[in-house]
Amino acid sequence: MDFVNKVRHDEGEALTNEAEEEPRLLTIPEIAADRGVSRQLVHRIAQSDPEFPTPVITPGSTRAKYPSDKVDEFFANRTIRPGRRTDLETKKRQEDPDADNKD
């Protein structure tokens, strides 16, 4: 308990936490573990998606950390789009090798 809160408490005022609780800061590997995805995927999203939260650099550390509340909000609002099915293109090329040259 800091001195100001102790004095206020002793004077009969309610003891409250005036400073809001700061969100937990997560590294990319921690975000990946929480989400069940690879750290490479999280790193790629952080680098390419402008909506991803901005990193916080804490004193004494070189690692970028991200506020957990902003990360949760980002993933809650993120639309997942499926990738292109390259396996079908490969199969089609194997069946008809001249298909790409017909155009």
Q: What's the topology here?
A:
Layout (H helix, E strand, L loop, with lengths): L2 H8 L14 E2 L1 H8 L3 H10 L7 E2 L6 E4 H10 L8 H10 L8
Helix pairs in contact: 2-3
Structural commentary:
It is a single chain. This protein is mainly α and 103 residues long. The chain is built from 5 helices and 3 strands; from the N terminus they run αβααββαα. A 3-stranded antiparallel β-sheet has the order 1-3-2.
* Helical fraction: 40-55%
Largest sheet: 3 strands, antiparallel
Kindly state the number of beta strands. 3
Tertiary shape: elongated
What's the pLDDT, averaged over the residues?
Answer: 79
SSE succession? HEHHEEHH
| Low-confidence sequence ranges | 3-9
Instruction: Round the Cα radius of gyration to an integer and report it.
Output: 25 Å
Strand content: 5-15%
Strand order of the largest sheet: 1-3-2
The secondary-structure class comes to mainly alpha
**What separation lies between the terminal Cα atoms?**
76 Å
Annotation field: number of helices = 5
Brief rundown of the structure:
By secondary structure, the protein is mainly alpha-helical. The chain is built from 5 helices and 3 strands, in the order H-E-H-H-E-E-H-H.
